[in-house]
Design brief:
By secondary structure, the chain is of the alpha/beta class. It has helices at about 5-45, 70-80, 90-95, 160-175, 210-225, and strands at about 55-60, 100-110, 115-120, 125, 130-135, 140, 155, 180-185, 195, 200-205, 230-235, 245-250. It is built from five helices and twelve strands. β4 and β5 (about 130-135) form a beta hairpin.
Length: about 260
Amino acid sequence: MTTPRKISQQNLAEKAQQQHQLLVWAGLCVLFLTLGLALHYGTRWLQQPTTMPLQHVVINGEFKNLQSAELRDLVMAAAAGGFFAVDMQAMRRAVEQQAWVDSASVRRIWPDTLYVDVVEQVPLARWAKAALINQRGEVFEPGDGIYPAGLPHLNGPYDRSYEVANRYRQIGADLKRVGLKIKFLRVNPRMAWLMVTEDGIRFEMGSQDVAQRLNRFIDLYPGLAADREERLRGVDLRYRHGFALQWQPQLSIAKMGV
């Protein structure tokens, strides 16, 4: 049987343990509250524009049509905030909105620098009247209206730009075997294809079996062009089992009597 004295000592020990636990929990609550307030006010302080203001912008990339200085000015104008406050996603979008920018990434370099990696658009050809098409078949419009010289001209419905770009590459590789190069390639809404080479040969290719019919012509072209005084001006491939040719006489200096 437990004596009253022993019961009293046990109660005191339990109360002491409970008080200790309460003190630990209270201490933890105060600690977490202090850390929360420090984080809150510290974050607000870091987001102030005057806290660690940005001083430098580094633009990295290989450019033919972009100007590093203009991109740097754009980034600095959009950098509304200090080192930690700047909106990186908004910064990237601002750079990528430039017509000649294909993609961009932005990162911070401690303590006051933004490093911007920029990939410039690589045009495959001109597109329609006032645009360009890149290597992936995406259409973009140069803001300054300046187009690189020597580009072929592609055209067609805008939702067919990827198909036109792929067809251009395929046909271009086939024509290279016989020394011909595309100057103009178009597909109309009925999916009929028209092509003009750099030396002025016009190809009516229709909408059916385009690659097969063109390769049939390419296989025979060296023999057709050999030892002829006429110049090939037109090829109609819209025949199931053959093609029609249009020749133009070439007037040499000797024949003109000069």
